[in-house]
């Protein structure tokens, strides 16, 4: 990543939500673990909510108790800060941090460390299977008829027979390896139209970028933060390469 991209900040950032996600093996996970995790984070994230799921099990071993062998990786519990600026989510083999009022990457790292540390202490997983960062950006352009290429470096060529297109949803997938020693990252970019809120005019677009790697290593909090930081840097570079100066003007470069 260039130093220019690394330093670039905006007065009106487009980020609606930043999401960190780590996945682990869940062989030792049982349904006491979410409560144990919440005890470790509740001083900062006191608003707890249970998440209900239907779990299904294959009867390969009748000696296994379903209550101790979840088969899907999805959060079972979430905990919010009082001001709703952040929430942490956790379940069998998964730990998630959501930043709902994003400022800087440095301000997000403590939340990631909090949920990862609590999860590792309570669940004691043996394998880290995924680390990812996702940024959901929303843009409102003022023109009633927006030329997409003015704001985004994404070409959308619509045939004349479909000229009255009311919306779109594109998915782009890339594989990134910056050096021989660097991990392989997959980047999934979703670019789509969004509905206007009451009182808004123009056109609204969502740029949703998800960057993740599948390390399959022993979990270590320092390695997890390093991988998350690398994913964040990759997302930043993708973001800057997908937008134009006209989009940067909407966000007002500092």
Number of domains: 2
Overall body shape: globular
Taking all Cα atoms into account, the compactness measure Rg is 20 Å
Q: Determine the N-to-C terminus distance.
A: 19 Å
Number of strands: 9
| Major sheet size, sense and barrel closure | 9 strands, antiparallel
Helix content: 25-40%
Q: List SSEs in N-to-C order.
A: HEHEEEEHEHEEEHH
Kindly estimate the percentage of residues that lie in beta strands according to DSSP: 25-35%
Strand order of the largest sheet: 2-3-4-5-1-6-9-8-7
Q: Spans with pLDDT under 50 lasting ≥5 residues?
A: 62-69
Mean pLDDT: 88
Structural class: alpha+beta
Number of helices: 6
Nutshell version of this structure?
With 254 residues, the protein is α+β, with helices and mostly antiparallel strands. It has 6 helices and 9 strands, in the order H-E-H-E-E-E-E-H-E-H-E-E-E-H-H.
Features:
single chain; alpha+beta; 6 helices
Q: Could you walk me through the main structural features you see in this protein, from its secondary elements to its overall organization?
A:
The chain has six helices and nine strands; from the N terminus they run αβαββββαβαβββαα. The chain is of the alpha+beta class and 254 residues long. The protein is globular.
Topology:
Elements: H1 3-7, E1 15-24, H2 33-41, E2 47-50, E3 77-80, E4 86-91, E5 94-99, H3 105-123, E6 128-141, H4 148-151, E7 169-176, E8 185-194, E9 203-213, H5 221-242, H6 245-251
Helix pairs in contact: 2-3, 3-5
